[in-house]
Amino acid sequence: MSLLERLADAHIDAAAERGEFDNLPGAGKPLDLDDDRDVPPELRAGYRLLKNAGFVPPELEARREIRDIEDLLRMTRRESAESQRLSRRLRWLETRLRETRRGRALLADHAYGPAIRDRLAHSRNGDTP
To answer: Is the pTM for the entire model greater than 0.70?
Structure first.
């Protein structure tokens, strides 16, 4: 679990202990996970069909593969042929992602996300990084 997730959980737990979640509308009722009111009406049927078929946007699938390759690279010897093959695949996926707007956002989060989370953690503790 990342530092940001731990901080969020701590804030949620503290709010729950203070009773801030008591008597909220819909308390005790199941969540509506098919709420699509933010999707334009003309796209809802198509989105629901893709969701039910298990479709994942290509950018998210590529990001998942990048994460898997990074995990594999940590377990291989740097000079090995396997490591070189994985590194080429990783560079290719990152290049492909940079070609899309959503992909650039995902890569930016990957590149800068840990640094931002670290900076936020230090500022919350009163430290200066």
So the answer is: no
